[in-house]
Amino acid sequence: MNVNNIHRFGVLIIVLLFAADVVSARTEHLNGFLSGTKDEGQQGDPGNKSGRGTARLAGNVTDFEGKPIKNIEVWIVFSQNENLKYKTSTNKKGKFSFLGLGSGYWNLTAFGQGYELVSKSVNVSQVGANPAVKIKMKKAEKSGGVLINEEASIGRPRA
User: Which of 26, 93, 109, 130 to pair with 122, CA 20 to 30 A apart?
Assistant: First the structure.
């Protein structure tokens, strides 16, 4: 072996070691994400992977006149594991979204000050796009200065 070959061999070893380090770091990051240790916004048991996935669910919240409602708190809870839940709020256009959901039925609840609580079950799929969730909220009624929350209808005003 001449000096040029030794130099090339040394450079090749350094490149391979660097590549192995990068792959190892990415594998550790991926394993942490898949095990739930990187899910800072998630509540519940990080060891239970049921309900986790790649699905996205988005929607909008409006009043019965079609006006978007901002700052509505929206919760989604996996029906097979109530410890797996996510929370978000609507933006000024009434829009919200959840990422990283698994396939199955999720219980979605929306509530905000001055509005009746709305709950519905949604079926989330990781295959294809999920249809947007449309939530219509009714203003809470006042009775003697106290807000009364009744079970709200979903999608259409009550007759």
Answer: 93
- CATH top-level class of 52-148: mainly beta
Residues 71 and 78: beta-carbon distance below 8 Å: no
Q: How long, in residues, is the chain? A: 159
State how far the Cα of 4 lies from the Cα of 32, in Å rounded to an integer. Answer: 42
For the entire predicted model, the pTM comes to 0.59
Domain coordinates of the chain in residue numbers?
A: 1-35, 52-148
N-term to C-term CA, the chain: 91
Answer for the pair 140, 114: CB distance below 8 angstroms, yes or no.
Answer: yes
- Work out the average pLDDT over 4-26: 51
What is the 3-state secondary structure of the chain? CCHHHHHHHHHHHHHHHHHHHHHHHHHHHHHHHHHCCCCCCCECCCCCCCCEEEEEEEEEEEECCCCECCCCEEEEEECCCCCCEEEEECCCCCEEEEEEECCEEEEEEEECCCECCEEEEEEECCCCCCCCEEEEECECEEECCEEECCCCCCCCCCC
